[in-house]
């Protein structure tokens, strides 16, 4: 993180993310720590660990779309599965972008990859392919700065293997991601 970057400057992205998560019914991160129970909850928890300095316009638009989808889900006037899957895939797209952002710390990038894998694994395979999420995940396979154990789970998502196996594999990865400091990499000051 650059010296002039303060937590207040990161807050708008975090607030937007929190609004989208509340709209989808995920527990509020400010409440007592909760134990994630499924792939979407693990993904949301991992995504919260990233702390992007600011959201790109694309990310902000995708999060706004997630909020709109959540409102439609709440009204129960639409095919709930398709709208939920679309919301999860939008979040996976954001996470893929963060996982590939070399300005983020390795811990933050790993957390983003966990989020991408979990959200992608929570959605319909045909929709994953149609939105290019699988291609974005596959593009992250050669990223040696990312946790090899987490990268190996990309194949699990792409092959469509059991979501419960994916959940069991992501739980310890999330615990590892919670340990290191996440956020922007510190750049050396010019002398």
Overall radius of gyration: 16 Å
The domain tally reads 1
> For the residues shown, what is the average pLDDT?
79
Strand content: under 5%
The biggest sheet, with number of strands, parallel, antiparallel or mixed sense and barrel status, is: none
The number of distinct helices, counting runs of at least 4 residues, comes to 9
Gross geometry: globular
Helix content: 55-70%
Number of strands: 0
Listing every helix as H and every strand as E from the N terminus to the C terminus, the arrangement reads: HHHHHHHHH
Structural class: mainly alpha
Could you name the ranges where pLDDT drops below 50 across 5 or more consecutive residues?
1-11, 186-191
Note the gap between the termini.
18 Å
Describe the structure.
- With 191 residues, the protein is an all-alpha fold.
- The protein is globular.
- It starts with 6 loop residues before the first helix and ends in a 13-residue tail after the last helix.
- Residues 1-11 and 186-191 have low confidence and may be disordered.
- α5 runs antiparallel to α9 (163-178) and α8 (148-159) runs antiparallel to α9 (163-178).
- The protein is built from nine helices and no strands.
- The chain is 65% helix and 0% strand.
- It has one domain.
- The chain has helices at 7-24, 39-48, 57-75, 80-99, 106-121, 125-130, 133-139, 148-159, 163-178.
- The relative contact order is 0.15.
């Amino acid at each position: 993180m650059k010296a002039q970057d303060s937590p207040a400057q990161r807050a708008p992205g975090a607030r937007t993310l929190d609004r989208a998560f509340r709209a989808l019914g995920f527990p509020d991160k400010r409440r007592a720590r909760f134990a994630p129970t499924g792939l979407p909850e693990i993904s949301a928890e991992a995504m919260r660990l990233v702390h992007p300095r600011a959201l790109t316009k694309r990310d902000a638009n995708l999060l706004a779309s997630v909020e709109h989808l959540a409102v439609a889900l709440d009204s129960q006037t639409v095919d709930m599965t398709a709208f939920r899957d679309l919301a999860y895939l939008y979040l996976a797209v954001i996470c893929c972008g963060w996982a590939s952002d070399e300005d983020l710390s390795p811990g933050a990038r790993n957390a983003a990859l966990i989020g991408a894998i979990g959200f992608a694994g929570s959605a319909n395979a045909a929709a994953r392919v149609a939105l290019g999420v699988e291609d974005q995940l596959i593009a992250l396979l050669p990223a040696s700065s990312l946790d090899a154990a987490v990268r190996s789970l990309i194949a699990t998502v792409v092959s469509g293997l059991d979501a419960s196996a994916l959940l069991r594999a992501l739980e310890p990865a999330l615990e590892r991601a919670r340990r290191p400091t996440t956020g922007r990499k510190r750049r050396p000051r010019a002398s």
